[in-house]
Write a structure and sequence with these properties.
- 45% of the residues lie in helices and 19% in strands.
- With 277 residues, it is of the alpha/beta class.
- It has one domain (2-259): Vaccinia Virus protein VP39 (Rossmann fold), CATH 3.40.50.
- It contains 10 helices and 7 strands.
- The protein has a 7-stranded mixed β-sheet with strand order 3-2-1-4-5-7-6, with helices on both faces.
Length: 277
C-alpha cells in the first residue's frame, strides 16, 4: 500500500506541474529538474532505453546530414537542447569536418557536455540559450537536430519556427522524440514500464524519483507524430515525415527548410555567429 500511495502521489504531482503551471513556472521547474539529474543523465538514458538511444541518435544525425547532403563542403549543425551533448558528438563522429554547436538552457548539462568534449578531445561549441529564442543569426546552419526536448518546451510551434529561422533554405532537421506506442497489446506493457518502473529506477540510480515521474508524464499530453508533422508544415519546414522506431515508442521527424520560413515569432534575437568559425 505504501508503494502505491507514493507512486500515485508522485503521479499527481507530475500531472499538476504539467497541466496547471504557467509557462514561466514550468520553464523554471524544468531547468532546475534537469540540473539535478545532469550527473546521472547519460547513465539513466542507457538504462531506460536498454542502450538503444545511441542507435537512435545515429539514425537521427544520418537523416539530418545524409552523406551526400553537404557535397564535400564544410557545414554547420546545431543541436538544440543538447543536454550532455550526445547528439552533437554523434554528428561530429559521422562528419568530423562539421562545425557543431550545442545549445542548452541548463548550465549543469552544459558542464557535463564540456567535460565529455575535453575527455574525447572533441571540438563542439557549447552555447547557453533557449530553444524559443536561439541567440544566433538567421540562416547560420545547414542542419538542426534535437533529441527528447520538445516535450519540455512551452511553445512547440515557436521552437520549430526558431529552428527554421537559423537554418539556411534547403537545410534539414531531424527531431528525435518518444511517442505513445500504437500497438494495443504493447501499449499496456509500455505504460507499466514507463510510468511505474522508470520512476523507481530514477529514484534508485539518480535519487530523483519525482523527476523521473515527471518525465514519463510529459508524454501524456504531448502531440502525436502526425500533429508534429502538421506543426512543422506551418513553421517553415516542408516534406515533413517521420519514422517510428523501437516498436513505435520512439519517433524521428525529418523535414527540409522552406525557401521562405514562417516568422512565427514577432521578436527575433540575432547575434553574429563568429564564435563558431
Amino acid at each position: 500500500m505504501e508503494f502505491d500511495f507514493e507512486w500515485k502521489r508522485g503521479m499527481v504531482d507530475a500531472q499538476r506541474r504539467l497541466f496547471s503551471w504557467s509557462d514561466e513556472r514550468k520553464v523554471a521547474y524544468v531547468r532546475e529538474m534537469f540540473g539535478r539529474i545532469a550527473r546521472h543523465y547519460d547513465l539513466m538514458n542507457r538504462l531506460m532505453t536498454f542502450g538503444r538511444d545511441r542507435a537512435w541518435r545515429r539514425y537521427a544525425v544520418a537523416q539530418a546530414v545524409p552523406s551526400s547532403f553537404l557535397k564535400g563542403k564544410t557545414g554547420r549543425i546545431l543541436d538544440v537542447a543538447t543536454g550532455t551533448g550526445d547528439l552533437a558528438f554523434e554528428a561530429l563522429c559521422q562528419h568530423p569536418d562539421l562545425k557543431v554547436v550545442g545549445l542548452d538552457f541548463v548550465p549543469e548539462m552544459l558542464v557535463q557536455a564540456q567535460r565529455k568534449a575535453v575527455d574525447a578531445g572533441a571540438t563542439v561549441h557549447l552555447l547557453a540559450g533557449d530553444a524559443l529564442c536561439i541567440p544566433l543569426a538567421a540562416g547560420t546552419f545547414d542542419a538542426v537536430v534535437t533529441g527528447f526536448a520538445l516535450r519540455n518546451v512551452t511553445d512547440i510551434p515557436a521552437a520549430f519556427s526558431e529552428m527554421a529561422r537559423v537554418t539556411r533554405p534547403g537545410g534539414r532537421i531531424a527531431c528525435l522524440e518518444i511517442a505513445r506506442p500504437h500497438l494495443p497489446l504493447f501499449r499496456h506493457l509500455y505504460a507499466f514500464y514507463f510510468y511505474r518502473l522508470v520512476p523507481l529506477l530514477g529514484g534508485w540510480i539518480a535519487g530523483q524519483r519525482l523527476a523521473y515521474t515527471y518525465l514519463p508524464h510529459s508524454l501524456t499530453a504531448f502531440l502525436t507524430p502526425d500533429e508534429i508533422v502538421a506543426v512543422m508544415g506551418q513553421t517553415g519546414w516542408r516534406d515533413a515525415t517521420y519514422r517510428r522506431l523501437m516498436l513505435g515508442t520512439v519517433v524521428v521527424h525529418v523535414g527540409v527548410r522552406e525557401l521562405q520560413a514562417c516568422q512565427w515569432r514577432q521578436k527575433i534575437v540575432q547575434l553574429d555567429p563568429e564564435g563558431i568559425g
